[in-house]
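Re: the request from the purification team.
They wanted to know what the chain is likely to look like in 3D before they choose a buffer screen. I agreed to run a prediction and write the result into the notebook, where they can find it.
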Amino acid sequence: MTGDAAKPTPRSYAFGPFLLIPERQLLLQGEKRVRIGGRALDILTALVERPGDVVNKRELLSRVWPDTVVEEANLKVNMTALRRVLGEGPGSPQYIATVVGRGYRFIGSVESSAKANSAAEARSILPAGHNLPTGTTQVFGRADAIEDILRDLKESRLVSIVGPGGIGKTTVAVTTAERVVGKFEHGVWLVDFSPLKDAALVPNTIAMTIGLAAHSANMLAALCDYLRDREMLLIFDSCEHIIDSAAACANRILADAGGVKILATSREPLGVKGERVRRLSGLAMPQSSIGLKAAEARTFPAVQLFVDRATDRLESFLLDDANTPPVAEICRKLDGLALAIELAATRVDSFDVHELLKQLDDRLSLLKGHRASAERHRTLTATIDWSYDLLTERERALMRRLSIFAGAFNLSSACAVATDGRIDRAKVVEDLANIVAKSLVAADVGDVEVQYRQLDTSRAYALEKLAASGELDGVRRRHAEHFLALAERAASEVDRLSRAEWLARYTHRLDDIRNALNWASADPDAAALGVKLTVAAIPFWKILSLVDECRSAAERVLEDRFEAYRSAHDELTLRQTVGATLLHVRGPLPEVKAALSMALQIAESLGDSALQLECLDGISEYELWTGDSRAALAVSEKTRAIEAKGQLFAGGSADAQAGSALEQLGALSASRRHLETVVNLPLSSDSRTDVARFEFNQRLIARGSLASVLWLQGFPDQAVNTARQQREEAEASNYAVSYCYALLLCSATMLLHVRNYDAANRYISFGLQQATTHGLTFWRTMTTGGSLCRWQLYTGHRPDLAELRRVLAKVREGGFRMKYPHYLTNFGEALARQGDLQGGLAAIDDAMALCEETGQTVIIPEIMRIKGNVIRFEDPTRSDRAAECYLRSIGQARRDGTPSWELRSAISLVKLARARGGDTQAEEMLAAAYNRFTEGFTTGDLRRARTLLDNPA
């Protein structure tokens, strides 16, 4: 049987204007793809497969959630979403009937086929390119506003939808955004600011939403770097409480990223230059209810919304001439506010519309004489107040307690926070379903589970009630304890789940963890909980790459006021975290070593060898970054002693540390032995993953250092192959720091060494793109001064001297001296080429002096050669000094056992000698250097040498 024949033939089901193709997870309405949640689609499939039959609830639950125990409320919410997608409502076709006490039946006419129709089959199912919620509500009366906003977006890069709470700003923004999905190359992304408490985290929230995992202390700069070459629509939703920060962020993004547009919702304009403001008014409604007939009333959006929501609540509700006047009057008294109308409509099962009008009229009459600019806001507040009073006491308690959540929450979280000695889980489930039905809590249907959230206005109202109830502290504690357990569970699943699954499950919990931490850190009675929660959240921050936020939180609970509540293990973890995060965000500052050394002391006092090894990994990395290879070598000896004493295995850490340090010190043979020990270990031997740690993977470090050693020793083919292997392992690790390290510090450098400039440029460009994507600004700095500058010098491009000066200053300030001599040498050559010979030579001499001071002499032969080239090309009258540089370089390279440096300097010496009439000694030096090689004869230096040897002067 062929592969094609083995593929199942996609089925299709046609009903009304819809076409369902289950195997493709595709529902079409005419030519348009319908956005629908995966669970709702599964329910629809189960029903249309058996039109006319009753499909019971148990069967639907087991089919749609086969491996999960879920509450029946999930089925009800998904069914409501499905009916909205199908457009069911008064006067519209009905497709699904509820069979009370049993289940559901598909009552529409269905045409089924064993094959999808050709038009649908031809459509490719592409990645969504957006994070917009699945549309589950019908939008009334906003068609003109949406068209206006679409026109505004064509003419302006910032459009703000402004209006009071409950007017429908988010609904209009999302519906507008749905119209442009697919028209922005890099997607349409909804950034929800409503849960945010700290305005400083606005750039972090945007970065998380668009998938930018940034290891940066300046998140806004990293964000703008990422967006600079992208075409994207960002929806800034609910800006009013962080208006200044949102405006500043929008202003910076619009200035730096020309392909980005922003659609904002707020109760006031952002006030940014070029902003186009669209103010939403209430839904159109009858100006008078006297003599109004149902047919005329149905033409008004406010009435349409009321009828739609009332029918949801009470299937038998019907707008007729008798009840039209009170319905119209309700809409008028509620100022056409969408949310207020929804809240009122949900009570039609408790009151007929005449009584409903009287109830509202009594409440709203309290506002007389107090109407000002906030008229509609007062109307909404009064409506929420009225709705709240109509709840049972248990429902009111649940609504109050749920207001503690920063954003979306699931049923399990709701039960954890709301359950106490008086309210058990079963009652929470029942009451939550009731307040969802009354529009006081929204239910968002997802593919995995139903997410609930209170709308901003009703949440603020309920939070005030919670504070007045005397329950606030208890609810906060249950909330913090719940998210402590959740953070611990998230940490335990880092290795079990794929990154995509982990992010989908836990990312949206971050705002609640932040809120819980802020409360626990501020309340003296919750200090112990604050320490526990911070420690538990560290892996959470790591996988989300919120490095600087993690550092700040760890430093906060290291303050003296928390000392009594920190265990020794807490202290160790927090100190180690501060050291690691500082290293990756701000470079190898003295505070890094201080934090890591203190963590090591604690690990030693605890007698925990495994934790000692973790601390030594960080200290070794710090010493290497500062250019102190001798100190790094001493650390490797400590690591080896601990391994031997405790019969532990640290995944080759001691050999990786020693090998990298010995390479810089020029002890290449010993370095190679250590490094090959590490890279020859089975891949599974290093049990510690990059995701769980901020440090580099020791195996990847070792392979990168080994590539450098092999090249220096005269094995260019092996060096390039080793760099390739490192690059492939780094890519497979899915860790941005390791991948950038492999691309920029290893592969690009090796390709420059063998003079494959085109390939080197590709890796530099791709590495810089990766660094930008993940906010690794420090790596961009290192590349600018390192491989990028060297490529420019090799290929005749003109480096930017001002930028190189900034790079050198940043590297000095950050203490990153390991590569500083390389950058200083590149700067010196660039300076000399652009006319400042003395300044250039001085910079190169400083680079050599620094190498001699630190003992990292392995690069000195190349620096000497570059100095000779600078003199030779920029001041030909001093050719003797150039020749002296080449000879010193050759001599040192022979002593160090670095034939690759020797060959390069011999080539330069022969070229200079021939220009001066020839020199037999120089020719012999070149031949001797060439003969030391056994491979790499197609690489740049060896080809140049062979050409010179074959064509004597």
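For the purification team: The first helix runs from residue 3 to 6.
Please add any questions underneath this entry.
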